[in-house]
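Bench notes, afternoon.
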Amino acid sequence: MTDPAPQAAGRTGTSVPDAPEVKTALHDFTTEFGSFQAEIIRKFHQHEERLTMLDRKTAFSPARPALCAADAGATLHHKAFDAYLRSGDDSPMRGLELDTKGLNTQIAADGGYLVDPETAQAIRDVLHATASIRAIASVVSVESTSFDVLVDHTDVSTGWATEALATADSDTPKIDRIPIRLHELSAMPKASQRLLDDSAFDIEGWLAARIASKFARAEAAAFIHGDGVDKPRGFLTHSDIPDEIWEWGSLGYIATGAAGDFASTNAADAIVDLVYALGASYRANAVFVMNSKTAGAVRKMKDADGRFLWSDGLAAGEPARLMGYPVLVAEDMPDIANNACAIAFGDFEAGYTIAERPDMRVLRDPFSAKPHVLFYATKRVGGDVSDFKAIKLLKFALS
């Protein structure tokens, strides 16, 4: 009797492979797959290494050294300054040598260290945002101890050129030099050592707020009333004369027509006269300056048609306006009183110049006020009238 299985196999033309052949094929497949996988992993690691090398070349590329150095320098300065403020360890500050633009750090001969850029910028932002003449004046940064403003009084000869007539020569220049000397402004906030030891305490932010507050108050007063001795000279310390006889070196004023008050009739006329006493070229950028008490009196005034001269800003942060011109409320302006120049009107960007050094310094003093630590912060700033035609005053007097 014949076995049916071989017959069936013969009919189909197929055969079952032996077990050793299957093992050999599986082993070959596994080996090839392992080699393929290893090659993929090797190429992946090579790609990662190329990316890493590219990042390093980009980070230290000579094409952008200033940016990298500035970023690194700012961070180093910030950390070194933080260590100095908290513990008095000045070795990082002494060892810090930065040669990138704007980040040169050197030890002051008279003691103290440069404030780090972030803290210095925070202080400057506060000073510019306060209700001070600084907000509307011309501010220049200098590296010297004084700044000269040159004023040319000459009217340059002009005319229409013709073929037959010669062009007239220009007049000889008449130039005034107004020197603005820089003076040292200081503040000395204090904190306990226990507070400084607390790592959660933002020492730079705290110091910036304290310094900016004290600097702002001192500057605001000096730019209005400063006598120029060891401080800026305020614009109200210059002599004032009636505007009809005004001359260079003094500020012209308009009288209200009443001693220590506005006139009893047509009180608003004095405001109108003050506006048009200023030259047209200055009025486009002009600002009123007065304190809160004076502003309270002025905002009640109406014109002949019963309309208020004063209008509040339409948007948040926008200044109030008087006769369409912005109003800066500066509390250091004098109150309304007899012979007081309680309102100023002018183009202060042209009329008043503030010169300052961009750097600020801090000296840590842990001895003078134990158990507190004092921080003696200094900056140099000056200011004075730079164009006497650009500012007019309203004087509360009969004439």
